Amino acid sequence: MNYRHAYHAGNHTEVFKHPVLVMLLEHLRRKPKPFTVIDTHAGIGLYDLASIEAGKTGEAADGIARIIDADMSAASGYLDIVRGLNPDGLKVYPGSPALVRALLRDDDRLIACELHPDDVKLLRRTFRGDPRVAVHARDGYEAIGAFVPPPTRRGLVFIDPPYEARDEFERLADALNAGIAKWPTGIFAAWYPVKDRAGIDTLRRCYAPDNPPTLTCEFLRTPVDGETLAGGGLLICNPPYGLGAKLDALCQSLRKTLAPKTGAFALDWWIRER
C-alpha cells in the first residue's frame, strides 16, 4: 500500500474521469429524491498543487493546468467547481470526494473509503463537521459489499483503485459483479489505466455478461506502448440516457486541448440494453 494520490492529482487522466463523475452526479440531482455516493478509494479529498508530492511529478501541468482556462462546455460543471476553489490562480485540486461534496444536497450522502492510514486522517480532517459525509478506514472493494444498496436506493459507486496489485483487474471485476448483483439499479463507474490491453481484456473476460447495460469510454493522450500511461478508461454500468453523446463531446474537447496530434478516444458498449 505505497500509492499516494498526491503525486498524480490533476493529471491528464483526472481531467477525463472527474468531468464524467460530475456528469453522473448532475444526472442524479435531476430528481428530488436523495442519493448516496460510495467513493471506494477516496484519497485525501483536496490536494495542494504546491506540495512536495505534486512538485516531484509536475503532472498537473499536463492536465488541469492545460484546461482550467479553456472554453470546454462539455466539462463546464467540473470546471466550475475547480475554478470556484481557485479564485486566485490554480493552487488546489479537488479529488473525487471533494467534487462529490460540491454537488451534494442536504439529504444526499457520501461514503468515502480510504485504507492508507495517513491519507484517511487527512480525509477525515477535510470533511470534519459535514453530516452528509461519512469517512471509513477500510478496503474499498470490501466496502462495496458492505454499503450497497444504500438506504436511499439511488446513487453511484465510484471506483478508482491504485492498481498496485497484480490481480487488480480481477479484484475489480469480482467487486463489480458482486456489487451489481446486490444493487442492479445503481450506477457503477470504475476507472482503469491504459498502458496495455492485457488487464482490460481480463476485466472484460471476468465481467459478468448478465450485468445491466455497460458502456466503456477510453481517452488516450498518446498511443499505447506497453510502458507509459497512455490514458485511462471508465467502465460505467447503468449509464444515464444520453451519456454517450456527452462522453464523445468531452473526449473531442480533451483531444483538441491536451493532445491534438496524438490523442484518441473510443466508446464501446460491453453490454447493450436488452
UniProtKB/TrEMBL annotation:
<feature type="binding site">
    <location>
        <position position="18"/>
    </location>
    <ligand>
        <name>S-adenosyl-L-methionine</name>
    </ligand>
</feature>
<keyword id="KW-0949">S-adenosyl-L-methionine</keyword>
<keyword id="KW-0698">rRNA processing</keyword>
<feature type="binding site">
    <location>
        <position position="160"/>
    </location>
    <ligand>
        <name>S-adenosyl-L-methionine</name>
    </ligand>
</feature>
<dbReference type="GO" id="GO:0070475">
    <property type="term" value="P:rRNA base methylation"/>
</dbReference>
<dbReference type="InterPro" id="IPR007473">
    <property type="entry name" value="RlmJ"/>
</dbReference>
<feature type="active site" description="Proton acceptor">
    <location>
        <position position="160"/>
    </location>
</feature>
<feature type="binding site">
    <location>
        <begin position="139"/>
        <end position="140"/>
    </location>
    <ligand>
        <name>S-adenosyl-L-methionine</name>
    </ligand>
</feature>
<keyword id="KW-0808">Transferase</keyword>
<comment type="function">
    <text>Specifically methylates the adenine in position 2030 of 23S rRNA.</text>
</comment>
<dbReference type="Pfam" id="PF04378">
    <property type="entry name" value="RsmJ"/>
</dbReference>
<keyword id="KW-0694">RNA-binding</keyword>
<feature type="binding site">
    <location>
        <position position="114"/>
    </location>
    <ligand>
        <name>S-adenosyl-L-methionine</name>
    </ligand>
</feature>
<protein>
    <recommendedName>
        <fullName>Ribosomal RNA large subunit methyltransferase J</fullName>
        <ecNumber>2.1.1.266</ecNumber>
    </recommendedName>
</protein>
<comment type="subunit">
    <text>Monomer.</text>
</comment>
<feature type="site" description="Interaction with substrate rRNA">
    <location>
        <position position="3"/>
    </location>
</feature>
<comment type="similarity">
    <text>Belongs to the RlmJ family.</text>
</comment>
<dbReference type="GO" id="GO:0036307">
    <property type="term" value="F:23S rRNA (adenine(2030)-N(6))-methyltransferase activity"/>
</dbReference>
<feature type="binding site">
    <location>
        <position position="41"/>
    </location>
    <ligand>
        <name>S-adenosyl-L-methionine</name>
    </ligand>
</feature>
<dbReference type="GO" id="GO:0003723">
    <property type="term" value="F:RNA binding"/>
</dbReference>
<feature type="binding site">
    <location>
        <position position="96"/>
    </location>
    <ligand>
        <name>S-adenosyl-L-methionine</name>
    </ligand>
</feature>
<dbReference type="InterPro" id="IPR029063">
    <property type="entry name" value="SAM-dependent_MTases_sf"/>
</dbReference>
<dbReference type="GO" id="GO:0005829">
    <property type="term" value="C:cytosol"/>
</dbReference>
<keyword id="KW-0489">Methyltransferase</keyword>
